[in-house]
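Exercise: predict the structure of this protein bound to adenosine-5'-diphosphate.
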Amino acid sequence: MLEVRSLTKCYSSVPAVDNVSFSIRPGEVLGYLGPNGSGKSTTVKVITGLLEPTAGTVLFKGTKITDDLAAYKRLVGYVPEEANLYPFLSGLEYLELVSRLRSLPTHLSAKRSEALLELFAMHPHRHTSISAYSKGMRQRILLIAALLHNPELIIFDEPLSGLDVTSALIFRKLVSALSREGKIIFYCSHVLEVVEKVCSHVIILQRGKQVAYGTIEDLKRFQSMPSLEAAFSNLVQEVDTEQSAHAIVDAVISR
Ligand SMILES: Nc1ncnc2c1ncn2[C@@H]1O[C@H](COP(=O)(O)OP(=O)(O)O)[C@@H](O)[C@H]1O
Ligand SMILES: [Mg+2]
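Solution:
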């Protein structure tokens, strides 16, 4: 189980994440939702061990992740929000590099890379240099790289960015299949549609604070709303979207 207790992370004394607590059991998918700048990626960086929290703890199977960060990182698959790929490598070379860094035996790495490249329709592009990849292709390589070592905990930060309709659909089904395998999944997004379909629980974050936490059904019932989108808007929307849209058009056409 992944357990986050009273997590706070400040950047120069301003809290980006403010006293957030949650837990995810094997087979559960937690959707972590919030508008831009609400603290999602900061939370991700703390639970992947990339950033130290200002306060609070992250426990995996009852042990603080900082007790043995290297061992913990071997159990984690992470798809970051921004692709940090080496443009001069080919997709396949990147996967080989990731496998070596994770000490995955060569035969397993080759077998899984081959299968995953095929499934994500990246096989024909495996020898092409990453600099020539589209955003969606980079995203697919990042997804493969995160899964290669069969991690127990999988963290997705805006995984759909750049993916086409088919890849997004495969991804959605993939998340459900991984949860059935007993993986612990943290799914961070501002796109509600997929979250509603794949997540067992959701947290809604606003300016670093957890404003709702429960199952999707709980949330809809609690807010008396027909959809997650309506419940979300009710909780975090601070602007009149209709009015903003008109104001933007007015500004564009003004003389
Ligand atoms: N490295 C950083 N230094 C200073 N402030 C940061 C840094 N990273 C993020 N922030 C700030 O923290 C807040 C939360 O950012 P982030 O976690 O990226 O939000 P989200 O992923 O929900 O869009 C934002 O106000 C952002 O400007
Ligand atoms: Mg983010």
